Amino acid sequence: MLRLTTLTSVLALAATALMAEQIKVGVSPGEHAEIMDEVVKIAAPMGLDIDVVEFSDYVIPNTALADGDIQANSFQHVPYLENQMKDRGFELVVVGNTITAPMGIYSDKIDDLAKLEDGAKVAIPNDPTNGGRALLLLQDLGLLTLTEGTGLVPSPLDIADNAKGLKFLELDAAQLPRTLADADIAIINTNYAIASGLNPKNDSIAMEKSDNPYVNVIVVRKGDENLPWVKTLVEAYHSDEIKTFINEAYEGSVITSW
Fold first, then answer.
1. What is the pTM of this model?
2. Could you tell me which of 27, 29, 62, 26 has the C-alpha nearest to residue 175?
3. Which domains does the chain have, with CATH numbers?
4. What band does 1 get if pLDDT is binned at 50, 70 and 90?
């Protein structure tokens, strides 16, 4: 009887695996990839087989989604998504919130922003939304003043007052951790900081406020938002197990936003 029960269980699991919906979800390195790996475990018994596809930059995941190479992605905040849809004509839809990851300032040369010298080199992301986010952080910290009305996407051209004469290096976000040997400070997205071995809570010398508009989201193609697997994906992500994993793994440097 025991053997029969065991065999029945194995067959049931095999049948579930064969019937499972299979999707590919694009992520960026760091916390987005790590969290989605945990979502895979939650989603499997729910009948959803997730193949996590890791991309090294912020541009390709939306292109891959729009082209049908993946079915969903989880790597970006809302302002970035809106900018991408406006500039590239993507027809994408938000189906659920994920996390907020405050951007941090890192340095191998100083341990306090008060020590930042005049003419210092500041490395920031070169995409409009994350570059603008970095400049807004510097403004919040009193290091520069931006022209009024620039919203969430200011560029260095929108700096009205730069008393320290800071010099900006605009680089691909994924490359910023590598600039710490040359730049005086680098403003790095949390996922790339974590992927490079930095601990946002312990290694940053300043952090963005947690109550910011940069909530990350799960995104699918327009027209797919009501498919059954989408509901399952979001439910798996929003599970208590994932919330616990995030709280324990990142200790406040990544915040759940659902």
1. 0.86
2. 29
3. 20-101+214-256 (3.40.190.10), 104-207 (3.40.190.10)
4. very low
